[in-house]
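Deviation from plan, reported transparently: nicotinamide-adenine-dinucleotide complex.
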Amino acid sequence: MLLNDKTCLVTGAGSGIGRAIAQAFAREGAVVGVADLDAGAAEETATSIRDAGGRALALVVDVTDEAAVDTVIDQLAASCDGIDVLVSNAGIQHIAALTELDYADWQRVLRVHLDGSFLTSRACLRHMRAQGRGGSILLMGSVHSKLASPLKAPYVTAKHGLIGLGRAIAREGAAYGVRANVICPGFVRTPLVDRQIPQQAEELGMSEEDVVSRVMLKDTVDNEFSTLDDVARAAVFFAAFPTNALTGQSLLVSHGWHME
Ligand code: NAD
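Because the crystal trials were delayed, the predicted structure below was used instead.
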């Protein structure tokens, strides 16, 4: 197994992509800290892992709460003999034209993605440095780390920012064996995406079917959504990669929506 006895923390693991990554890590032998704002959802993911024979702890945390992040990560490290992998995945979306965008919504989206990734990375880096056995940090970017779509300014801004944070962590973390990479999925059918289809249909004045085929998937090579399994496989690959040859990178998992 690729992650045997590694301690892995996945934020936003109560749903969607985070849940799929937590389950995939557990199948590879990891002990998984399943962190989410939503206690019931975190417990549901942890239970699904234990029911399948894996090891998981549900952790309730708001990634924008500095003290709570430090406490939860200290507790996980203490109960599992350190932390080997972080997936900073918790995220939210807000659909609005720039001219109609409230400052509070702009700040809320940036806080969850950027402050949340900084705070969880900092807390894990402190443990990884002290442990002396390196580690791997994955930030959940998006195709929107590379390009912009209308109505998503704070999300696009935050996701571009994560590329910078990943590179900064890669530069500093190398001194103590920590790698950092960014996974950039295209559209995956999760609650986050399902919520925005009707919102975009209303904003753009088109049907929900047209939002999917003419907006979301129009630049893919095959008009297909990426899947939870696609993204989880990429996360396992990065988490298990053994050397600093792969650090400071970002990988698109998007059916060719964006190529570089
Ligand atoms: P989702 O809504 O299914 O899950 C997000 C989870 O994050 C939820 O369980 C939610 O409770 C949790 N969360 C939100 N705010 C939090 C906070 N402050 N603290 C802790 N947990 C919090 O979304 P998803 O589609 O699985 O998205 C996961 C990540 O993948 C996000 O960063 C998103 O931007 C990114 N992403 C998603 C897609 C996609 O198409 N679904 C594409 C590219 C990138």
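The chain has a mean pLDDT of 97. We consider this an acceptable substitute for the interim report.
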